[in-house]
Amino acid sequence: MSTLRPRTLSNTELIKYFAMYVDDNPEGAPIDWQIELLRRFTAVAPEKEFPLHDERQLDLFK
């Protein structure tokens, strides 16, 4: 799998191969795979649409 480039894979393929990396390697997936997965998650759910801070949530460190 080291010859696969995560940027060239479809979402389904990326998830499938990422899971195989995690299952087969105790250190987890390579950083370029992690970055690509995060990039795609960000594209699907932009922070503006889903703010990190929920108005109903209390601040723990006030």
Topology:
Blueprint (H helix, E strand, L loop, with lengths): L10 H14 L6 H14 L18
What fraction of the residues are assigned to beta strands by DSSP?
Answer: under 5%
Enumerate how many helices there are, as a single number.
2
Shape: elongated
Radius of gyration: 16 Å
The biggest sheet amounts to: none
What does this structure look like?
By secondary structure, the chain is mainly alpha-helical. It is 45% helix and 0% strand. It has 2 helices and no strands. The longest helix has 14 residues, at 11-24.
Short overview:
The chain has 62 residues and is mainly α.
Structural descriptors:
62 residues, 0% strand
